[in-house]
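Weekly structure sync - notes
Attendees: PM, LS, DV (DV joined late)
Agenda: review two folding runs queued last week.

Item 1: First target. Sequence and structure tokens pasted below for the record.
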Amino acid sequence: MTVGRELARDERKGIRRLVTGWCANYDSGEDICLPLDGSCYMLGKGWTGSFCRYFRGSVLPLDPVLEKAVCEEGPPPDTKPCAVCGKPFLPEGRQAYCSPACKDEGNRRRSRERMRKKRAKPGQGCYDLGLPKARGSKGS
């Protein structure tokens, strides 16, 4: 038998956001669940455990961090904030960015900083070989 735990505030907020924004069974005009013809019990959910079948199968996978946090036993999973946007995500190995777009932006920022440091170093401009300057040619 599984024992449910109380949902954290961010988890409740995430469930509410998913239901009101993505659930096809939710009518925002009248704030009801269409199959139940009454209020959606997912909006007042305070504990893990039973979820609406449609919500769990079709809506919850849209937020993999929330899905892993509320569907698995034990403490919430270890998430890592994205180095660019700060959004929490489930890293795979040494992954530092949540999406390819953030990865590209992070690489641009690192490259920009590296070049800024390189240009700031003295004597890194033109080659200075230490040769005396050539003077006008003598003779003809």
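Item 2: Second target, run right after the first with the same settings.
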Amino acid sequence: MFIPDISNRTGPKFIALADALTEAIESNELAINTKLPPQRILSYRLGVTVGTVTRAYQELERRGLIEPKVGSGTYVKDRQSEQQTFYHPVTSQEGIDLAICRPLLLSQQQHLSTILQDLSHEPTAQKAVLDYYSAEGLHGHNRTLQHWLNDRLNVDIDNRRLIWTYGGQHSLAIILQSLSRPKDTILVEGLCYAEFINACQQAERKLVPVQLDEAGIVPEDLELHCKRHKPRLLYLTPAIQNPTGTQINDSRRLKIIEICRRYNVLIIEDDVLYCPPSHRKTPLVAIAPDITIYVGSFSKYFAGGLRVGYLIMPLTLKDTLQRTLRANCMHISPLMIDLVCRWLTNGAMEAVDKEIALELSARHRLFNQYFPSQNNAVIPGFNCWIPLPEPLTGYSFSKLLRNKGIHVREAEMFAVGRYPVPAAIRISLTGPSSRSQLKTGLVIIKEQISLVMPNSYRIA
């Protein structure tokens, strides 16, 4: 009999139970047509009331995950026909996905249902979000984003400095197209977000890697490349580096800003990756707003399918960036922006943020059982960086794991040019839909490393 664990979940107990059962169903721990435990037995085993279990089952039925059968009990609903046709991904892979970096779907579906119902009763809003607009968007949307950012970043941002985009990748494409030309030099971290590397290659920009250490890019190497290459742009992930997960400390941030000011370099501050609330620092854009273009997104903080992001820019760059946006897509869908603004104002975004942080904390505790962290500068975000012993390489180990049904990212994907490639892999703790799937993946990874270094890695 399957008994879910709801000990580390917040909010109403019936929602916590419904969410735990949802995870089990989505990860196939509870297979199709599996009978759920009788309500009285489950209430006894979990130490909750029968009413709590009843409400949880009603919530699961509303989500379309289970169905009651008169005189027989409650069963996991067969949704395969629907999932395997209309809503099935065109490209999918079998096994445990520790490669994809995404937020877990916890209560987001409930929040989506709520605001769609609200919108269905608001004809003025319906008309507004279905119309064409200029790249500047709607007043209410812009003010909502402004107020949220002012509270979140603890700064006073003029809403004229804000531009809505279709997420972080779209923002980066707009910046590259607006502020650089083919063959221009852009400085980047030696190990860099792979899709930024790809975007620059497609746009024929020259990337020059800056040396990294445990605290981020090395200021002395940054200055050396500024002197040598006279770059226009520096691309950084200071809050949580992708792929290593380190965070640039305050003193180093100030050194980087001072160097960029001296050499007239604009900073692209990519803050898309999820950073737990307790580790969030003042962003560079709040310290040096005149030379920083801040890239934000809701895809990693709420839902991957929510392709909505924003730029915070110096006012001097507004016309240039907006012209590129218009040439690129005219304007961002006001319907998508409206959904985001409703979540920003009704508390849903904050609630999901807390839920993600709590679940992520539990998954990091699980990770640390197998791979204890030795770097205090590493932030416990979605991704974890695992160094490998000789003679393994990231590429060879990734291929080995793939043959065993485990998907990871090898270090080679993130190396810029001839930057030295460490023997390492990056895994995402939020790729698997359940903790049990994550645990299985971690065990297999550690077992395979143990075959090379049996004394250094023992299975917990």
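Discussion on item 2: The first strand starts at residue 66 and ends at 69.
Action: LS to circulate a short write-up before next sync.
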